[in-house]
Design brief:
Radius of gyration: 17 Å
Largest sheet: none
Strand content: under 5%
Helix content: over 70%
Order of helices and strands: HHHHH
Shape: elongated
Structural class: mainly alpha
Number of domains: 1
Amino acid sequence: MKGVALCLAIMLMLQLLTPFWWWIMLVPLGFGMWAARSVWHGMGVGMVSAGSLWLGASLYNWLSSGQFIADRVAAMLGAGLGLNSVVLLFVLTALVAVVPAGLAGATGYWYRYLFLTAMKSR
């Protein structure tokens, strides 16, 4: 839980200070290299922190007078499926963040494991 809070706070600060979206991959990568206890721990922390950050951001934008644009984007996304749901838009937004952040957290743990085993073999 501390890892999720730490990653979430760092990502939120970096997202607000810089225009780059890829902090959702670099912060979990660093956490995985630094403090993950297992590959699943690194992946889980990355997924939960990035997913909650982007889900919270999309909810904030929707609640602060963004309903008009969100409804139109949801209509465009759901036109082929017969769906017109803002909830689907929120789920897709969270998935866009969850997948790369989870993979980055797992990759960070694997990097640490690789380098530690390489250093022990010397």
